[in-house]
């Protein structure tokens, strides 16, 4: 019954759950799924005419809900030890943390997929088959027209297996296995872009804005309030400890759907500060902060459009589209550089350590873009008479291509889209962009 109530008032859902950034549950961006995990709303698709039929779909999907990485388990363990060692509390929720709640996360979990993450992908597969029944169909799966590509990371491989299982269970297919290709050049391009590795990933000064914010007044106030709630010395609650507490609340909720006592350490103002710190990390490491962040996704950008072009030419020749659906499973850092390259969620002002107060309405907000199982879809429609249209969807909702004027119900002409991204289509060469000493001009 609790699920019937507005998520905002559901005591099982932490009030701060909408601020969990890339540690957020998929259901927080699609709350109707809380009541019915397989619910879809086909009316959102609105092709401009009844003649339109979908001929190709590429889905770029983040893995499902996972355990914390080793780096964060260590921080969480340190906070747990600190809380266990503090003076016996009078508040029952804190006494529960001090005496009942046990630290069950271990370093060997290291970001592996959890059962909820298996279900995230099983259910997403079924919902997408309901949204696009002529493409994600048993006939096309059996016909080898649905391709799977994954990052080599265990959480992505297991998400791929789960997505496939969603379909084989739906159609009770037991007599056939479907393969997937492991392709890190595509799904983990950031690992192979030398200029990104040198100038951002391995450059300590690249994250200056995040470092300054973590030492700044907003974070300091959050740390003090946590220390007050725990009844410990201010100097014990560092930014790392605040992050560990936030992640304990987020993981207990995402993995076990529990509104744990750890969430009591934050009010909404605190959670918005923690969310901004995570957005600063993503902005400068994967988003608009540095041009190379998005240019490192050129290989995925060209892969997408060559796939779309192939479907167009096969369709125009009256041939069956040999790759009707491509399911590509990667990371938050696979999707975000591509979203950035395409211009999505670009604010007029950069996110910095000093403008938090004016960025409360920012569009660059990973809590809305990149929960577990976040998915970016490109659906190609043939509307007859050579009228081909491309519709982008993020997390099962149509999103207009930024800056594209012809936004007929977010389904512009494919040629318009290619014209809009012509500079990238003619350039954006991964080798050129990623070489360390880029030739000027
Ligand atoms: O803060 P952690 O260690 O969890 O950061 C992870 C990334 O998680 P995210 O920041 O996206 O929540 C993880 O991305 P994911 O999409 O695979 O979950 C990434 O693969 C991992 O390397 C960590 O990223 P970092 O940039 O190395 O901190």
UniProtKB/TrEMBL annotation:
Question: Per the record's keyword annotation, is ATP-binding included, yes or no?
Answer: no
Location, primary (coarse class): membrane
Q: Does the keyword NADP apply?
A: no
State the Pfam families in the record: His_Phos_2
Annotated disulfide bonds: 52-383, 249-263
Quote the cellular component terms of the Gene Ontology held in the record.
plasma membrane
Q: Where in the cell is it found?
A: Cell membrane
Keyword terms, alphabetized: Cell membrane, Disulfide bond, Glycoprotein, Hydrolase, Membrane, Signal
Please give the superkingdom of this protein's source: Eukaryota
Q: InterPro entries from the entry?
A: His_Pase_clade-2, His_PPase_superfam, Histidine_acid_Pase_euk
Catalytic reaction(s) noted: 1D-myo-inositol 1,2,3-trisphosphate + H2O = 1D-myo-inositol 2,3-bisphosphate + phosphate; 1D-myo-inositol hexakisphosphate + H2O = 1D-myo-inositol 1,2,3,5,6-pentakisphosphate + phosphate; 1D-myo-inositol 2,3-bisphosphate + H2O = 1D-myo-inositol 2-phosphate + phosphate; 1D-myo-inositol 1,3,4,5,6-pentakisphosphate + H2O = 1D-myo-inositol 1,4,5,6-tetrakisphosphate + phosphate
Can you name this protein? Answer: Multiple inositol polyphosphate phosphatase 1
Origin organism of this chain?
Acanthochromis polyacanthus (spiny chromis)
């Amino acid at each position: 019954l609790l699920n019937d109530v507005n998520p905002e008032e559901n005591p099982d859902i932490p009030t701060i759950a909408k601020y969990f950034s890339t540690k957020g549950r998929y259901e927080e961006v699609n709350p109707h799924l809380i009541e019915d995990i397989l619910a879809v709303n086909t009316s959102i698709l609105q092709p401009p005419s009844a003649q339109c039929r979908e001929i190709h779909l590429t889905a770029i999907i983040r893995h499902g809900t996972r355990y914390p990485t080793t780096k964060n388990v260590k921080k969480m363990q340190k906070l747990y030890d600190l809380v266990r060692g503090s003076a016996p509390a009078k508040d029952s929720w804190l006494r529960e943390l001090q005496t009942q709640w046990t630290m069950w996360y271990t370093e060997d979990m290291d970001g592996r997929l959890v059962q909820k993450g298996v279900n995230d992908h099983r259910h997403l597969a079924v919902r997408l088959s309901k949204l696009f029944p002529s493409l994600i169909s048993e006939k096309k799966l059996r016909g080898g027209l649905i391709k799977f590509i994954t990052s080599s990371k265990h959480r992505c491989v297991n998400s791929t297996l789960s997505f496939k299982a969603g379909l084989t269970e739906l159609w009770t297919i037991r007599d056939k296995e479907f393969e997937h290709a492991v392709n890190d050049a595509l799904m983990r391009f950031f690992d192979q872009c030398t200029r990104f590795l040198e100038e951002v990933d391995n450059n300590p000064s690249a994250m200056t804005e995040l470092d300054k914010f973590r030492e700044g007044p907003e974070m300091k106030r959050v740390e003090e309030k946590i220390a007050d709630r725990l009844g410990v010395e201010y100097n014990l609650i560092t930014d790392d400890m605040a992050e560990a507490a936030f992640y304990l609340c987020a993981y207990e909720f995402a993995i076990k759907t529990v509104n744990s006592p750890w969430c009591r350490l934050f009010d909404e103002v605190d959670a918005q500060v923690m969310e901004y710190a995570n957005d600063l990390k993503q902005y400068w490491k994967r988003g608009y902060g540095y041009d190379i962040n998005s240019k490192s996704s050129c290989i995925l950008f060209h892969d997408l459009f060559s796939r779309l072009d192939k479907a167009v030419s096969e369709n125009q020749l009256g041939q069956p589209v040999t790759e009707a659906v491509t399911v590509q499973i990667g990371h938050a850092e696979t999707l975000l550089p591509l979203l950035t390259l395409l211009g999505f969620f670009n604010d007029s002002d950069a996110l910095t350590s000093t403008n938090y107060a004016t960025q409360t309405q920012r569009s660059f907000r990973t809590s809305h873009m990149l929960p577990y199982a976040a998915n970016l879809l490109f659906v190609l429609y043939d509307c007859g008479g050579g009228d081909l249209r491309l519709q982008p969807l993020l997390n099962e909702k149509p999103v207009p291509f930024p800056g594209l004027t012809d936004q007929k119900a977010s389904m512009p002409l494919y040629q318009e889209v290619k014209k809009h991204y012509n500079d990238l289509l003619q350039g954006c060469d991964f080798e050129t962009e990623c070489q360390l000493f880029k030739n000027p001009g």
